[in-house]
Design a protein that fits this description.
Shape: globular
Strand content: 25-35%
CATH topology: Umud Fragment, subunit A
Strand order of the largest sheet: 1-2-11-3-4-9-10
Order of helices and strands: HEEEHEEEEEEHEE
Number of helices: 3
CATH class: Mainly Beta
Number of domains: 1
Distance between the termini: 40 Å
Number of strands: 11
Structural class: alpha+beta
CATH architecture: Ribbon
């Protein structure tokens, strides 16, 4: 019986090393893997394009209490961003010159209500969620990033605007599939 256990151990070690090497290769080549329901699940590649409304972007969250809470509750992963946060992928819904309103009813951009943007008061575990409020015209360095696919996404409705300096790259879907 010891032989099958050794073989299983070798297979698990081989698989772990392979996944680790593959993830490093993806990072070097600018490929991101999205496994969250905030965007279509799949592979995204960094591209040299401007940050425009509708684009997907990879960003490092700012170091603050809201993102500390998000990491403690496993809404976001650990990673190489300041604060130990992982890089996030979201879609741009507003940029310079857009009027944005955020309240419990949802997010409005230039007077238009965005789908699936209403704030929840608690997560699936019953923990209270931040109730972010905003009424502003965005300047050149501000972006509204969120998911229009997932009404439970941890996004701008809870953390607000993201500065241009935190956006690392525009990313485009390479291969995605439905949840």
């Amino acid at each position: 019986m010891k032989k099958p256990i050794k073989i299983l151990g070798v297979l698990i070690l081989t698989l772990s090393v392979s996944v680790f090497v593959l993830s490093i290769g993806f990072q070097i080549s600018g490929i991101y893997i999205n496994t969250t329901p905030s965007l279509p699940v799949g592979f995204y590649k960094a591209v040299d394009e401007p940050i425009l409304s509708g684009a997907y972007v990879a960003f490092c969250p700012p170091k603050n209490e809201v993102f500390d809470m998000a990491m403690d509750r496993f809404y976001i992963n650990q990673g190489n961003c300041p604060g130990g946060y992982g890089l996030l992928l979201k879609r741009v819904f507003a940029q310079s010159g857009d009027t944005v309103s955020i309240d419990q009813a949802g997010i409005f951009v230039n007077g238009e209500h965005l789908p699936n943007s209403a704030q929840l008061t608690a997560d699936a575990e019953g923990h209270a969620l931040p109730q972010y409020r905003l009424q502003a015209v965005l300047d050149d360095s501000e972006y509204l990033l969120l998911s229009d696919l997932n009404p439970q996404s941890f996004d701008a409705r809870y953390f607000g605007l993201i500065a241009r300096s935190q956006i690392k790259q525009v990313v485009c879907p390479v291969f995605t599939w439905s949840h």
